[in-house]
Amino acid sequence: MKLDLLYEVDVPKPWGKPHPWGQREAEQQAYKDTLEQIKLADTLGFFTTWHVEHHFREGRSHSPAPEVIIGALSQCTENLRLGFGVTLMPHAFTPPMRVAEKVATADILSGGRVEWGTGRSTPMEQIAFGVDREASRDQWKEAIEAVVGMWESEYFEFHGKFLEFPRRMVTPKPVQDPHPPPWMAATSDGSAAVAGSLGLGLLSFSILQPIQRMAQHIKQYREAAANARPITRVKNNRVAAYTLVHCADTMEQAEKNGIWDSVWWWYKNLAEFTIEWELPHLSTEEQDKIFPLLKAQTTGDFDPRGFSDADMIVVGTPEQCLEKMIKYEELGVDQLICYVQFGHLPHESVMRTIELLGTEI
Fold it and tell me: CA-CA distance, 335 to 325, in Å (whole number)?
């Protein structure tokens, strides 16, 4: 099992100074820290660094333009593969021809190190971009077919259900032949099976769930992949799963770094954001069912250490982290995506996490 990194560019509040200066300074520092951390990881044997495309997600993800980050990394790293985690494919986000252009450009600048993740996003972002939510999966699939056609043909035209594209030469072409490995983001059993059936790698973005459920997720993917009808000529039968990771020399040091507050911030931010923007129509009872730990924590019935005790996250000394990581390998995970920059963790502690993972694990 290889170790990857994932960056959403967390910029947690409070931002210190009044708007807009506090936000600007916090974002600028987060991007500076991100580049410094990844440059260190490039020297220590990590496999891929993944970069999300998220919009309007205050606090947890200030990363709407992964192609820009990957372009910068292409010039200051040599070994890491550079992953789009993901490009949003419904046409209102980005027309397929623009996806083809920006991913191929990144592949050239990186010397053929790009991994191409794809996805559809969620209602909050889709609504703001005018995406037809009912047609989003069909658009995603058609866009993939169009993009690989643009890469593999000198001149290309496409007449689909959603895209009408006249004969043109789409430039540039990627370094990797015939194109970068394709992936699909998935958060449910059904989505995992779709990825497997289409010959796409599985980016498992489910988190804070029992690892036995992840095992089922992977099993459904593998079963579908065994009888795949690949949507591209690059069949990618790999599982990459992510989780929060923090490694320190001692557990005492991890706690001094504020690990449990940062873990809780991550869960609380995700829950509150989802309830406000994705599921506002649900009753309080329904919301409590989806995010039960919010209520449990307010009544003192939950401690974020429980996530670690159940191996949903990887926290501890190198020995403790290795023990937990082996359990993910045994589930069939090919690449463990380590989300190391989250919450209020000091930059120095994230650098130490990366150093320990690279040198001792």
Answer: 11
